[in-house]
C-alpha cells in the first residue's frame, strides 16, 4: 500500500512523516525530492529563482521516474507499506501554479498527462490542511515556492485535486497542535492498514 503526505510548505507534514517512523517502524519511508543526483538537480532548481518553470517540472518528473523504479515499485512488489513525504500531487499543485502564466493552456492537465503514462497512483493521500498565510509564515518564505500569494494558488490546486478524487484524500487540520496532528495521522494510517488485511 502506498500512502502519500501532501500539504503546503510549513504544513508540518515532514514532522508527521518523522513521527510515523516510530509508530510504523515496519514501513518504508521515502520522500520527493529524493536524495539521488536527480533530487540534487531538483534542489538546485528550487534554490534558483530564475529557473525556467518548465525545465523545473521535467527535473521533478525525472526524479519521480527514478524514485518509482528504484524505491516505490520494488517496495510495493514486496508488499511493504510505503509512506512518501510528497509525491506526484506536489507537481500537480506546485508546478501547475508555477506554470499558470505560461503558454500552456491547462498546466495541471498537461502535468497529469505526463505522469499518467508511467506513475503509480497513491492508494491514499493525507492532506495536511493549513491556510497559505500560516504556511508562508511557518516556512519563513525562504524559496520561490514559499510566498503566500504563490501558496494560495497551490492551495486552490490541491482543492481541485481533492474535489476530483475525494475518496483518495484524507484531510487533516494542520492548524491543530503538532501532537494532535500526529495522533490524527497515526490513527488514519492504522485504520488504512487494518482495512487492508
Ligand atoms: P520539500 O523538501 O518537501 O519542502 P518542505 O519540507 O519545506 O515541504 O520540498 C521542497 C520544495 O519543493 C517545496 O517548496 C515544495 C516544492 N516541490 C514542488 O514544487 N514540486 C514537487 O513535485 C515537489 C516534490 C516539491
Automatic annotation (TrEMBL):
Question: What's a single GO CC term here?
Answer: cytoplasm
Under the heading InterPro entries, the entry gives: P-loop_NTPase (IPR027417), Thymidylate_kin-like_dom (IPR039430), Thymidylate_kinase (IPR018094)
Q: Which Pfam families match?
A: Thymidylate_kin
Instruction: Report which reactions are catalysed by this protein.
Output: dTMP + ATP = dTDP + ADP
Top-level taxon of the source organism: Archaea
**UniProt keyword list:** ATP-binding, Kinase, Nucleotide biosynthesis, Nucleotide-binding, Transferase
- SUPFAM superfamilies in alphabetical order: P-loop containing nucleoside triphosphate hydrolases
Enzyme Commission (EC) number = 2.7.4.9
**Residues that bind ATP, according to the entry?**
7-14
This protein's record includes keyword Nucleotide-binding: yes
**One biological process GO term for this chain?**
dTDP biosynthetic process
Protein name per the record = Probable thymidylate kinase
- Designated gene of the protein: tmk
Amino acid at each position: 500500500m502506498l500512502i502519500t503526505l501532501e500539504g503546503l510548505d510549513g504544513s508540518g507534514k515532514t514532522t508527521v512523516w518523522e513521527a510515523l517512523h516510530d509508530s510504523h517502524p515496519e514501513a518504508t519511508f521515502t520522500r520527493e525530492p529524493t536524495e539521488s543526483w536527480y533530487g540534487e538537480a531538483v534542489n538546485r532548481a528550487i534554490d534558483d529563482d530564475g529557473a525556467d518553470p518548465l525545465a523545473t517540472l521535467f527535473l521533478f518528473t525525472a526524479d519521480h521516474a527514478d524514485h518509482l523504479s528504484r524505491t516505490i515499485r520494488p517496495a510495493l512488489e514486496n508488499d511493504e507499506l510505503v509512506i512518501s513525504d510528497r509525491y506526484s500531487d506536489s507537481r500537480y499543485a506546485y508546478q501547475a501554479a508555477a506554470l499558470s502564466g505560461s503558454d500552456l493552456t491547462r498546466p495541471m492537465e498537461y502535468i497529469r498527462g505526463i505522469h499518467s503514462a508511467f506513475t503509480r497512483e497513491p492508494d491514499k493521500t493525507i492532506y495536511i490542511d493549513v491556510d497559505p498565510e500560516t504556511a508562508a509564515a511557518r516556512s519563513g518564505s525562504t524559496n520561490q515556492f514559499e510566498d503566500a500569494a504563490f501558496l494560495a494558488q497551490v492551495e486552490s490546486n490541491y482543492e481541485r485535486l481533492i474535489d476530483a478524487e475525494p475518496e483518495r484524500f484524507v484531510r487533516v487540520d494542520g492548524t491543530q497542535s503538532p501532537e494532535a496532528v500526529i495522533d490524527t495521522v497515526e490513527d488514519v494510517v492504522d485504520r488504512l492498514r487494518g482495512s487492508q488485511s
